[in-house]
Amino acid sequence: MAYKLTTRQPTGRIPWPLVLVEGPEKAGKSYAAALLSASPKVGRTFWIDLAEGSADEYGAIKGARYEIVEHDGTWGSIFGAVEAIHAVASQAAASNEPPVVLVIDSMTAEWDMLKDWAGNRAKGSATNRRKLAQDPNAELTISTNYWNDANSRHRKLMRLLMTFPGIAVMTARGKWVAAMGDNGQPVEGKKEYKVEGQKSLAFDASCWVRLDRDNPGQVIGCRSVHTGIRPGHDDPKPLPSDWTLEWLIFDALKCDPREAHVRDVVELQPGDEAPESPRFAALMEAIANVPTVEALKVQWQQIQPALNEQEISEDEARRASAAVTERKAALTAAAESAAGAEPAGASA
User: In angstroms, rounded to a whole number, what is the distance separating the alpha carbons of residues 210 and 196?
Assistant: First the structure.
């Protein structure tokens, strides 16, 4: 059967922006985000502070009216908060209320957290356990599957941000670093600028702003026909000295809350493999964080009932079982190591 081709004409409408504000320390990234909440053009502003600690202090800015989102530092807590705010923003948009603003400060900390998660999981692999047993300071191998899982978590978060039915602002750290050659070694006398975060962070943003303590801020790039910057052609455009995110979003980018829409991002289907079920994700999260072998047994006992109730697939059940085995080995090795470190006569 021939494929039925479906097409439509472009609308020319401006979508809600996903703004990346990056730069070195104390360049004004968080300040700019806090100042946006004072704008009469925006509604509720939610602030998720990730390892920055500036949310309370910037509440003293005249007119600032954002809400600090409390979380416990875990991925589930942070991701769940973004999902909840996404729903609040959808309701506000449907009711023609002023746009909801979400600030994540910072995405550098988000990616550092996921890198640590990949590294901590890698420590439990059989190969790395043997390395650590021989040398506690050995360089560990973080295999591709761990990085794939970390990137998968990041992509799920970015999908929420890219389809946010309001204004989303991400901060990140950026700096000049030594350029690296093909051999992995620094190139003498050559530097390159690096945004500290997941490698696709700037690509996913619809507008990319760079701030600096010593030079005027710049719009590095944006998806817009109104800023005078042709993507991939023009140089970065300096920001006016009195710029604000309110001006950038509503005046420069011409974002009109009456007509703005969510970016049309169709989720790509990977093929025959079914997406992960919510129950499987919860199981894997619990398995990865159990503190003892006894607690791990509880998670093991939940796998078969979840499969029987069709809450997880057979493939997910196998993967969960493998994760239990791997986690048990890591906990056992840690317990044996701790027991070996006890002074003589310490045990009963």
Answer: 12
CA 284 centroid distance within chain: 19
Backbone φ and ψ for 176, nearest 5 degrees, come out as -85, 130
The whole-angstrom separation of Cα 224 and Cα 250 is: 12
Cα→Cα distances 321→63, 277, 315, 317, Å? 53, 16, 10, 6
Provide the phi-psi class of 340: left if phi over 0, else alpha when psi is between -120 and 50, else beta: alpha
Residue with tokens 């890198």, as numbered in its chain: 115
CB 165 within 8 A of CB 93: yes
Which residue stretches of the chain are H helix? 29-36, 75-94, 107-122, 126-134, 144-162, 201-204, 245-246, 278-289, 293-308, 314-341
Q: Which helix (H) or strand (E) segment is 265 a member of?
A: none
Q: Tell me: the pLDDT tens digits for 55-106?
A: 999 999 999 999 999 999 999 999 999 999 999 999 999 999 999 999 999 9
Work out the end-to-end distance of the chain between its first and last CA atoms, rounded to an integer number of angstroms. Answer: 75
Task: Using alpha carbons only, give the angle 237, 241, 243 rounded to the nearest 5 degrees.
Answer: 75
Lowest mean pLDDT across 3-7, 139-143, 190-194, 231-235: 231-235
More confident residue, 342 or 286: 286
Q: What percent of the chain has a predicted confidence (pLDDT) above 70? A: 93
For residue 7, report the phi and psi dihedrals to the nearest 5 degrees: -135, 170
pTM of the model: 0.73
Q: Are 153 and 75 in contact (CB under 8 A)?
A: yes
What's the CA gap between 153 and 290, in Å, rounded?
20
